[in-house]
Amino acid sequence: MAVMSFLTVSLLFALGLFTVLSRRNVFKTVIGLTLMESAVLLLLISWAYIPGGSAPILPLQGKGVDPLPHAFTLTAIVIGACDIALAFAFIMKLNRFERSVNVDDFRRLKG
Q1: Are 45 and 70 in contact (CB under 8 A)?
Q2: Domain coverage including residue 79
Q3: What is the per-residue pLDDT for 1?
Q4: Cα gap 101→91, rounded to integer Å
Q5: Considering its fold, how many domains does the chain have in total?
Q6: Does residue 75 sit in helix, strand or coil?
Q7: Helices and strands (H, E) in the chain, number of each type
Q8: Does some domain include residue 46?
Q9: In this structure, what is the dihedral angle of CA atoms 79, 80, 83, 85, given to the nearest 10 degrees?
């Protein structure tokens, strides 16, 4: 079970990294960053997994699972959704201004 989740994390992160490095479209770059973020969150949840563990609700029977990684992951999901929405809003504004979503066209906006 753990090996399968680590392989999934590796594949998801590699796919996101490939998307970020190979695409010149800003929308696809943000989607690649989102894939990489999802891979990191899945890794965090995979590390928190305890075989045979139960929810940490009293009365506790058996090994209890630490709820802190799950709480951090839920917080990161909410913050990540807000970041993605803000990034898409900026991209839509740039698209309206530049009439393009290509990264090379945004380089002239520097400085």
Answers
A1: yes
A2: 2-50+65-109
A3: 66
A4: 7
A5: 1
A6: helix
A7: 4, 0
A8: yes
A9: -110
pLDDT for residue 57: 78
What CATH number is given to the structural domain containing 43?
A: 1.10.287.3510
Q: Alpha-carbon distance 18 to 109, whole Å? A: 26
> Could you count the other beta carbons within 10 Å of the beta carbon of residue 32?
20
Q: Distance (Å, rounded) from C-alpha 21 to C-alpha 1?
A: 30
Q: What's the confidence (pLDDT) of residue 38?
A: 94
- Please report whether residue 58 resides in a domain: no
Which two three-digit tokens encode residue 82? 């807000």
Average pLDDT, the chain: 86
The answer to whether position 82 is within a domain reads yes
Give yes or no for a contact between 94 and 29, defined as CB atoms under 8 angstroms apart. Answer: no
Structure token digits, residue 63: 């090994």
The two three-digit tokens of residue 30, written as one number: 């943000």
- Radius of gyration, alpha carbons of the chain: 19
Instruction: Let me know: does 19 contact 32? Beta carbons within 8 Å.
Output: yes
Q: Within a domain: residue 23?
A: yes
Total residue length of the chain: 111
